[in-house]
Amino acid sequence: DTGVSQDPRHKITKRGQNVTFRCDPISEHNRLYWYRQTLGQGPEFLTYFQNEAQLEKSRLLSDRFSAERPKGSFSTLEIQRTEQGDSAMYLCASSLGGLAGEQFFGPGTRLTVL
Amino acid sequence: RKEVEQDPGPFNVPEGATVAFNCTYSNSASQSFFWYRQDCRKEPKLLMSVYSSGNEDGRFTAQLNRASQYISLLIRDSKLSDSATYLCVVKNTGNQFYFGTGTSLTVIP
After folding, report:
1. Of the candidates B28, B14, B16, which has an alpha carbon nearest to the alpha carbon of residue B70?
2. Is A40 near chain B, with CB under 8 Å?
């Protein structure tokens, strides 16, 4: 399968713990996005990379969230000191860029904070 | 004001019906427009891009009205398999993608 992959698919953690998620984009895609989605809402933009450079971050992204894409391939999203409000589906998407720039999504990581 | 607004529905229609969804966006400088489909507990998948001249893909027709800042999706001859949430997506000049809350469609036998 050459689509976007995410790991883990599910994560249950206790409040206050740190969690890290991984995303492997489609190999030739230079843009990578992270989103958060809660029930009944559309995906909410968190951050965006072009190659290894993090170009945009949502103002909604608190200091507890950090993302990296060290070699311009896979990316990690870390949440420190998790809170119950962090429970959501975390989606990764990649695209080739350009004016159209259709995004292709991974299956997501569902985070539950107890 | 939200970047993208959609009627969340739900829309419940019989098989074979025609159904239309609309979506409005707030940033007149938005560059690209899409409709995505999302099945329950699955990731969004691209249904179609929306071009200024309008475009059609089988039973699906998308229209863009830049003057009024709205996008529409028309589904003809609805199938049971069309049941899903349809997300309106707008890309701004800064390469951020904004998603609507989605419109829920259930096609009834």
Report:
1. B28
2. yes
